[in-house]
UniProtKB/TrEMBL annotation:
It is an enzyme of class 4 (lyase). The keyword Lyase applies. Keywords: Lyase. This is 4a-hydroxytetrahydrobiopterin dehydratase. Its EC number is 4.2.1.96.
Amino acid sequence: MRDRLSPEARAAALENLPGWSLVEGREAITKSYKFKSFSEAFGFMARVALEAEKLDHHPEWFNVYNRVEVVLATHSAQGLTELDVKLAGKMDLIAKL
Ligand SMILES: C[C@H](O)[C@H](O)[C@H]1CNC2=NC(N)=NC(=O)C2=N1
């Protein structure tokens, strides 16, 4: 789970994660979520936080009002692993609730 993905596996994973893209100059993925209000944005962050704790895998994120910008990477692997793909998928599911 914490082994770096091959470039092929990384590309395949991104195809299944709409709105996610590679960060420039760093092996990480990013997405910007926009909600109707701060309450919805913060509710999203609270639900994601509980999932992140369960996975022991934590997002880098930035919130202003209704926008949440997320960067995912596995720090211990200094790159992308299955854990990032898994958390990204969970975040997309939670965002649609
Ligand atoms: C000790 C603990 O398991 C590690 O520090 C975990 C916690 N959450 C983490 N989150 C992320 N995104 N990358 C990590 O390498 C990481 N490591």
